[in-house]
Design brief:
heterodimer, A: mainly alpha, 12 helices, globular, B: mainly alpha
Chain lengths: 234, 108
C-alpha cells in the first residue's frame, strides 16, 4: 500500500513541475496582493486551502474590501468558476470508482489539476487513483506554500521574476498541442480557440468567459452528428 | 467588514466554487448510466476548453497598445516549435517561459 502511494507520487511529480513554478509565483503574487491590501498572512493561507481556485481568490480580495454582500460573492464565484462544470463532465468516467479519493479529486479540480489528470498518460503499473490524488495534493500544496509565503514576506520581497507567470500559458499551449496530436479531427479545439477569441473581442477580458462557454456548448451540440459520424468524437 | 462578515464572504466563495466542481457528479451519479449527450460532451469539451484556457491566460494582452502582444506571440511559437520538435513537455514549457522572460525584461 505504502509502496503504491510512493510510486504514484514519484510518477506524478514530474507532471506537476510546471505548476510548481507557476503556483509558487502566482501564489506569492496573491499573498503579496493580500498583504499590501492590509490582510494578515492568515487570510491567503486559509483561503488558498479552502478556495483553491486561482482567479477567484484575487477577486475575493476585492470582495473583502468592499461592502458586505454575500449573494454578490456567490454570483461572482459561479460566473468566474463556471468552467469547472465542463471539467466535471469530462471527468465523470475517469473519477469513477475512486472511493473516498473522489471527494478530494473533485474538491481540488482547478484548471491545472484537471488538465494534467485529463491528459497525462499514467503508466500501467501506477495506481490511477493515487496518481490523480498525488497531482491534486502537490498542486494544492504549491498554491498554499506560495500564498502563505507571499502573505508573510510580501512587503519584503523585490521582484525580478517578471514574465514568470507565462509558465501557465506555456503549459496550456503544450496541453492543447498534446490533445491536438492525440486526435484525428480538430473541430473541438478550433471551436474552443475561435469562439474564445471572438467573445474576447466582443465582450472584453472581464466578461468573455460565460459567452465563450455558451458558444462552445451550442456549437459542439449543433455539430454532434457530424463529429460523432466518424465513430470518433472530435 | 467585521470578521464574521469576512468569514461568510469567503464561505460563499468556497460554496460557489464547490457547486461548479461537484454539480456534474451530483447530477450524473456513477451508479446510473450517463446520458449519451453528456458522454459526447465529456469527449469533445476538453479540446475546446484547453483552447479557451489559452485565450483566458492571454485575455489581458493588448494587440493595439504596448508591446502589441509580440512577446506572447514569439514565446508561444517557441513553445510550439520546441514541442513539435522534441515533444518533451517540461522542455517546451521551460524554454518558452525563459524566452518570454528575456523578451519582457530585456527586449521590450
Amino acid at each position: 500500500m505504502n509502496h503504491k502511494i510512493k510510486k504514484a507520487f514519484r510518477a506524478a511529480f514530474p507532471h506537476t513541475l510546471p505548476i510548481f513554478a507557476g503556483f509558487w509565483f502566482l501564489g506569492l503574487t496573491y499573498g503579496i496582493y493580500m498583504n499590501v491590501s492590509g490582510f494578515s498572512f492568515w487570510y491567503p493561507m486559509l483561503m488558498s486551502i479552502t478556495i483553491f481556485a486561482g482567479s477567484i481568490e484575487f477577486v475575493t480580495v476585492n470582495l473583502l474590501l468592499g461592502a458586505f454582500n454575500p449573494l454578490q460573492a456567490l454570483a461572482m464565484t459561479l460566473m468566474i468558476n463556471a468552467r469547472h462544470l465542463f471539467y466535471g463532465i469530462a471527468m465523470l468516467d475517469k473519477f469513477k470508482g475512486m472511493g473516498w479519493k473522489k471527494f478530494y479529486l473533485i474538491f481540488g479540480m482547478c484548471d491545472e489539476s484537471f488538465s494534467i489528470n485529463y491528459t497525462a498518460e499514467i503508466p500501467e503499473d501506477v495506481d490511477r487513483g493515487w496518481f490523480m490524488f498525488a497531482v491534486t495534493v502537490l498542486n494544492h500544496f504549491y498554491w498554499f506554500f506560495g500564498s502563505t509565503l507571499g502573505g508573510i514576506f510580501g512587503s519584503l520581497l523585490k521582484f525580478d521574476t517578471k514574465g514568470l507567470d507565462f509558465v501557465m500559458t506555456a503549459m496550456f499551449v503544450v496541453i492543447f498541442m498534446e490533445q491536438w496530436m492525440k486526435e484525428e479531427k480538430h473541430a473541438s479545439e478550433l471551436i474552443g480557440l475561435g469562439i474564445s477569441v471572438l467573445c474576447l473581442i466582443i465582450f472584453k477580458a472581464e466578461n468573455f468567459m460565460i459567452p465563450s462557454m455558451i458558444g462552445i456548448l451550442l456549437l459542439l451540440t449543433g455539430s454532434r452528428r457530424i463529429l460523432e459520424k466518424g465513430g470518433e468524437a472530435a | 467588514m467585521t470578521i464574521t462578515q469576512q468569514i461568510i464572504t469567503v464561505a460563499m466563495v468556497v460554496f460557489g466554487t464547490m457547486i461548479t466542481r461537484f454539480l456534474p457528479f451530483v447530477v450524473f451519479q456513477s451508479n446510473k448510466p450517463t446520458p449519451k449527450y453528456i458522454q459526447y460532451l465529456g469527449k469533445v469539451l476538453p479540446g475546446a476548453v484547453f483552447g479557451l484556457l489559452i485565450i483566458y491566460c492571454l485575455r489581458n494582452v493588448s494587440v493595439f497598445t504596448g508591446t502589441h502582444g509580440l512577446p506572447e506571440a514569439i514565446a508561444i511559437v517557441v513553445v510550439a516549435v520546441l514541442h513539435k520538435w522534441k515533444r518533451q513537455m517540461l522542455l517546451s514549457i521551460a524554454g518558452g517561459t525563459a524566452v518570454y522572460m528575456l523578451l519582457v525584461q530585456l527586449v521590450f
